[in-house]
């Protein structure tokens, strides 16, 4: 049952009470207590905590001011029965009546009073009512006096009952949160201005056909479908953990988590023999030894969406934690997506979830046997046998056992929280295992739900003493949660995992599958001749998957574009990549030639395949949830500027790159309304666009659990939003495809574009003409709805947007964001990663917004003998289509590479992963190192205790890192 249906059911019950008591509802107070309070609370969903009564204003005291959050949002002026007069022949249905008209003239004094209270505080909606009759009006209307506009009038209880859906949408709390009243009043006040406008696309969806594929493409598509299925890890869980993209942050988290786990385990007794003497030793040891820190038993793994937090934790317990430690751990993973989110049932849900997982992990049958339960409750058994059931225990053992069994049944079936505590203690004391509760996917729930879960888990951690908690959360959730009181009460450790580069994800997974899988059947002997005369045998196609490295790894822009379009969701990146690689636009023959001849794949062709997929032109929704969308579309029921979405993205993009922290990279809806009001953009249009953009994931709310876009809600641009803004303002292929497929309000322009698209003219000529027509249409339509007179600095992003759109019409190439001047001068870059074994790496430049891929062997020249991670080097850049490349490494920038030679000793080394931590002597500072910092012929001899001299650098985060080893002590 929907909320409105439930509210209507409650209304009917309430009306029975009101009608039975209506003769006694005379005074204003009667109306408040018997009707108004109950209607707002029981039917419309307003909590009494949101009521402010008898609020003082300059012009008097308002009866009610109702709040959404902390913001006053609704004024209600109550009157005694008989004061309000509504002159209408129709009393059993709602009416829309002009406020200054004759029908509402008897009520105008109350209306003016409510308006004066509301206008003083900028409250948008006011209500005048005696409990029976209701007048609802908007206090501010653009370009007119509120008196000249209509109000929604409900002349009787029957009118509310018969028109309850509109009454609910106007005044219900959930609708007020979403400002539904804006849309309703907009339709009422502007019904003549916003008539339906027919929209026409130059190329309608039913005219867009599928592209023909070659026989080679059909066969290879089967291979790539299977290859990408493996690549996503859907049927191969091993690939998720084996191909986790490591970073310095994840390596530090590995080491630290291992130390924390060992610290807690070291305090769990291992020997059940010699209980008396060992207990004494344990007590003496705990008196003198430091117990595990409370903060070490609660860990937050923080990272953006797509950073692989869940995979990281699974990998840690299955691959990183040594087997000797792992066998003594009992990880309990709870997926909060299985919860309803109901605060009233959250505690019982998590209790049952943890109990189920503990029973499954502790007992072979998935539940404890009777003897197991006797062991779990042996202390109570002893208390009962020596206490209040002593006589029964001594004289009738069967009766005692029955009483104890009844007690067990009550504890296990009814006292579930106590049973959970017993299970935790049983795991620790009897099975000598460390319970580790992993609470995953809490991000989508309300802060109240998170706090309840957090407090619940900490309560049981304190009861069990040796129990560890892990919370994988997004950076936004961590930011919000860190400000709560409950977070400051319980100490915790936090580790940050950055979003992995899609290039590295592709590289690792492709390498893994090339080692593990066979993509083609060797018994087949089919052969193909490409358009360039290259013969390819089907049996050798398994190696052809390496061409993906060129398309998705070595090209700086393709991997970045895919990552942003999917908001760095790895599974979606793989699915979108499959769409591109199997598209007839890409042409399998071109991929074969690229693999055989090492010719690079065209970025233009990559974007064309991304947009069109298997079709002759762009087709909306053909790319799935994370496909490309048209940012220029408008609504025929309420037309607005076709650039409205891009104007919103332009503002949020500027805010994102100028903000210093998470909060500063967001804007409140209220702030955006004020900003765009200066451009004469209607608040209703902005609200509708924002809601649609949230659903399309172009923008995202600060709190993902919030169900509505209230004024106080904060909004930020997503990676997908950034990608679409760049495509819309800089990419010729995207702009052309949107021009021929987006439904527009100018039929003449649509027909003209259609005629040229279907003509036999040269393709370049067609593209130029279509882009110019579409650009002119966008600019002229935008000017109808939006003022362009603002010349203040904060509107520069809006002016830049218009310049970019006009540039398409001027036939200017929409190139990359980097100035060509960068290609003619030497730039200082920092080596963000370099693998000498595979000879590839990435260099970051402050002048660019992405890292640049390079291979030492592919450089035109290099004047440095060796480079290491975090080195500052002087480089010369070049250009390959839209791709920036490193042409040469010219020198080592000594003044920026501040290193100091120190003596170190290895404390920890993971030979399988090739990294470790050392201690700088004689200080206790830990320093991270990778095996590549040591000579190649010595890497197999690395071990704990090894002493060596090394160049040490201190990174920007304060941590130390070995640049290279200079001497090894035998």
UniProtKB/TrEMBL annotation:
InterPro entries: NA-bd_OB-fold, P-loop_NTPase, Restrct_endonuc_type1_HsdR_N. Pfam families: HSDR_N. Residues 49-138 form the Restriction endonuclease type I HsdR N-terminal domain. Gene3D superfamilies: Nucleic acid-binding proteins, P-loop containing nucleotide triphosphate hydrolases. Signal peptide: none annotated. This is Restriction endonuclease type I HsdR N-terminal domain-containing protein. It comes from Roseateles aquae.
